[in-house]
C-alpha cells in the first residue's frame, strides 16, 4: 500500500459556458416565488414557469446567455448580456445557485460576463439595473466600479454604468 496521501482532485476555475437543458432545470429551482422571479428576470417572465421553457422565456433580441461552472459541473450561476447601444453591453438576469452564494462568486460571474462581452462585442462600457434594497448585489457592482446613473434610476431600481 502506498503511504503517500492521495491528492485531492482540483476543479478548474469557474468559467462561462452555454447553458444546457439541465442548467435551465437547475435554474428553475433557484427561483422559489413570484417576487424572486420579478427581481431576477423582470416583469415579462411570470411565475410559476416551466424550467424547460426558460430558453424561450428568457430570449431577448441579441441576448447571450451563459452559466458559470467548474468545467462541465453543475451550474453555479447564470447571466446574460446584450448590446443596448454600440459599445455598451447590458448585464442582466444575474443569479447564483443558493449553495454558491456568499463565496465571492457573484463578483467572478460579473467579471466573466464583462470579459466575454468585451471579447465578443468589443464593449467598452457596461450597464445593469439592480433593486435598491439588494445590498449584496450593490456591494458587488460598486466594488467592480459601477456607478449609479441618477437620471435613469427610480424609487425601486438603480441604473448603473461602468466604463471598461
Write the layout of secondary structure elements.
Blueprint lengths: L14 E3 L3 H10 L3 H8 L12 H4 L6 E6 L7 E9 L2 E9 L8 H17 L3 E7 L3 H9 L3 E2 L8 E7 L1
How would you sum up this structure, described in words?
This protein is α+β, with helices and mostly antiparallel strands. It has 5 helices and 7 strands; from the N terminus they run βαααβββαβαββ. A 7-stranded mixed sheet has the order 1-2-3-4-5-7-6, sandwiched between helices. A hairpin with an 8-residue loop joins β6 and β7. The N and C termini lie far apart (55 Å). The mean pLDDT is 94.
Structural class assignment: alpha+beta
Mean pLDDT: 94
Strand adjacency order, main sheet: 1-2-3-4-5-7-6
Shape category: globular
Count every beta strand, where a strand is a DSSP E run of 2 or more residues. 7
Report how far the terminal alpha carbons are from each other. Answer: 55 Å
SSE arrangement, N to C: EHHHEEEHEHEE
Helix content: 25-40%
Question: Approximately what portion of the residues adopt beta-strand conformation?
Answer: 25-35%
Unreliable spans: none
Number of helices: 5
**Radius of gyration (Å):** 17 Å
How is the biggest beta sheet arranged? 7 strands, mixed
Amino acid at each position: 500500500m502506498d503511504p503517500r496521501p492521495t491528492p485531492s482532485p482540483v476543479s478548474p476555475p469557474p468559467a462561462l459556458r452555454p447553458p444546457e437543458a439541465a442548467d435551465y432545470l437547475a435554474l428553475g429551482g433557484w427561483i422559489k416565488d413570484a417576487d424572486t422571479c420579478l427581481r431576477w428576470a423582470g416583469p415579462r417572465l411570470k411565475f410559476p414557469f416551466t424550467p424547460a421553457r426558460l430558453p424561450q422565456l428568457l430570449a431577448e433580441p441579441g441576448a447571450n446567455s451563459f452559466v458559470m461552472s467548474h468545467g462541465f459541473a453543475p451550474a453555479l450561476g447564470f447571466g446574460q448580456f446584450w448590446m443596448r447601444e454600440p459599445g455598451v453591453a447590458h448585464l442582466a438576469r444575474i443569479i447564483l445557485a443558493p449553495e454558491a452564494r456568499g463565496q465571492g462568486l457573484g463578483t467572478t460571474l460579473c467579471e466573466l460576463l464583462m470579459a466575454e462581452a468585451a471579447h465578443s462585442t468589443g464593449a467598452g462600457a457596461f450597464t445593469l439595473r439592480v433593486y435598491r434594497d439588494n445590498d449584496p448585489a450593490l456591494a458587488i457592482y460598486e466594488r467592480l466600479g459601477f456607478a449609479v446613473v441618477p437620471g435613469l434610476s427610480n424609487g425601486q431600481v438603480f441604473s448603473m454604468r461602468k466604463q471598461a
